[in-house]
Amino acid sequence: MLILDPGTQPLSNAEVLAHIQSLDAKYARDGRTETIPDNLRKVMRDVKSILTIPTQPTCPVDTAPLVTEAQKAAAPTFRSERVFAALARRLRAKPFSLLPAEILQVFNHVPRSRTELTMIVQEGEERFAEEVLDQCLDVIREIMVEGRGLDVVNGNGV
């Protein structure tokens, strides 16, 4: 294995999925699909299946097997860097002041309840009042689920 960049930078779920999909395409293009080791094939399959669950931001909307309207309503709208930039800008600002690692976890997991959010945010219950946690969830819902608030990116805000 060749290490291209020794830096340690956390990856988003979208980056992991893109890498797995590019590996799939490379193996198919090179005609090596039969020579992929079983353990690698299983890991790649499992990662793809987890990251394409309808409630994941990485799930492609047009191919998602969304069964109910409730699932459709709960599916996040992540499709571009604009969403991450808008989310990061809002969650870095006061009253939230989330850390970069916390913002990445919010982006990856799209918490929908106060309990889910406090599991992601370090000492969330101690750092924030319940009202602030609810405001944070509103921001996440607005940007990640409803797709609103993106117009401030690449023009007026970020």
UniProtKB/TrEMBL annotation:
The keyword Nucleus applies. InterPro entries: HRDC-like_sf, Rpb4/RPC9, Rpb4/RPC9_sf, RPC9. The keyword Iron does not apply. Keywords: DNA-directed RNA polymerase, Nucleus, Transcription. It is found in: Nucleus. One of its GO terms (cellular component) is RNA polymerase III complex. It holds the Pfam family RNA_pol_Rpb4. GO terms for biological process: transcription initiation at RNA polymerase III promoter. This is DNA-directed RNA polymerase III subunit RPC9. The lineage of its organism: Eukaryota, Fungi, Dikarya, Ascomycota, Pezizomycotina.
